[in-house]
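Let's study a protein:

___
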Amino acid sequence: MKIGIVGKQFDKSIGCQVPYLNYFSTMGNVSIVLPQSEIDESLDLVVLPGGPDVIDYSALGFFNNQPDLYYEWFDHNRLPQYIEAKVPVFGICRGLQAINNYYGGALYQELYNHNYSLKSRDELVHQVLVTEEWKWKLGTTQQVNSLHHQGINVLGTGLIVVATGHSNKWHYNNLPEAIIHESDKVAAVQWHPEEILDHLTPKLIELITDTEN
């Protein structure tokens, strides 16, 4: 499988963090997708990694923290082209939020009293509950890490929530933590599977990359 991970800006360079390279290299051959380059329809999967805040002009307030303009340009110019070309797209954390915006959804710009936004990526901090209709494909409850302060407020058109967050200490229970599109080959998770392995992420990726689906 040919996998392209969208590169982010590092000072004067564009690249990808090592955990993403290590994680996705177990699934195939990995390359970096330069945000400004033409789309590569030979890719079997495009990965939208985590990163800086997503700019959501439809949301109330403005709490963005140093958004990556290369990511933003990709979201508005190349992401639509990849989806229209039916290249499978998988989002992680910021990637989930960008996908939701693409389909016309809206974000919480700031999850107030979100106790887990400052936890490290390598610590399991809350549960995600798989919805009843998806348990037969994805399994059930699992623990995940958490490193975000934005999240889905209004779900984008055509997106299906397949898992939600839950914690006794969390004010945002039922926040979408995993999504898939009803017809496009697009899925995403809010946590960071490249830091802690989970059983749900590989199954979601398989669903959108399986040529028989």
The longest helix spans residues 200-209. The two ends are 16 Å apart (CA to CA). The mean pLDDT is 87.
